[in-house]
Each structure stands twice: as C-alpha cells, then as structure tokens.
Amino acid sequence: MEKFMLIFQGVKSSEQPSAQQMQEIMAKWMAWIDKLAQAGKYVSGEPLLPTGKIITGKNKTVTDAAFAEGKEIIGGYFIVNAADYNEAVALCDDYPDYANGGTVIVRQIQQMAMPA
Q1: If the chain, 116 residues long, is cut into consecutive pieces of 10 residues, what is the mean pLDDT of each piece?
Q2: Residue 71 falls within a domain, yes or no?
C-alpha cells in the first residue's frame, strides 16, 4: 500500500455561504472522511488557514503571505492509503467541492529509506 497526498484547491468566491449552506458543506466533508476511514484509506488531513509565511533564498527571507487573496486557494490536504494512482484518483470521486469549482491534486508520497 502506498501513501498519497490529496491537495484541495478551491476557487475564491465573492460570497460567503450561509450558516445552513456551511452545515451542508461540512456534512458532505464528514461523510467523505467517514467513507474513506471505514475503507481503511484515510490516514490524516487538515484544513489550512488562509495566512502563512513564505521563506525564500539563501538568506532565508521570511515574508507574510495572505493566501486567501489569490484566485485559487489551497484549502487543505488528506493523506490516504491506496494501491496506486488509479485507486488514489478513484478515492476522489466523492470530493465535496467539485460542484464549487474545486480541484484535487493527487501526489504520491515518496518512501524514504532511513539511515541505519
């Protein structure tokens, strides 16, 4: 079994969902997580806050970043178990944000040999 990272990329919307809509969205997310967990595929995952830091260059320059200001936002990630890319992609069938223009980036996690 391999590990894959599912990176959730959303499109910034000018309107905020109502409390009712937010509950419906969260119910879809929780149902998807539960389905993956019941199948033994879900390892972990978290949403990301819209702010952060960017560290660049040899001098390690640190700048504040407001990621929510961009058009497309990385909103969070999951780590999942899958046999291969085909299975990892199939796990994304129920991704709740497709209807809102969301995208899932699927990346395999490279296994690293630990030094003895």
Answers
A1: 95 79 93 97 93 89 74 87 98 92 95 82
A2: yes
Residues 99 and 77: their CA atoms lie apart, in Å, by 18
> 79 is in which domain, residue-wise?
2-108
CATH number for the domain spanning 25: value is: 3.30.70.1060
Joined tokens for residue 53: 């830091």
pTM of the predicted model as reported, rounded to 2 decimal places = 0.84
Question: What is the DSSP secondary structure assignment for residue 83, as one 8-state letter?
Answer: S
Distance of CA 85 to CAs 10, 35, 66, 81, 113, Å?
A: 22, 19, 32, 10, 21
List CB contacts of 101: < 8 A, sequence separation 6 or more: 10, 11
Pairwise CA distance, residues 89 & 84, whole Å: 9
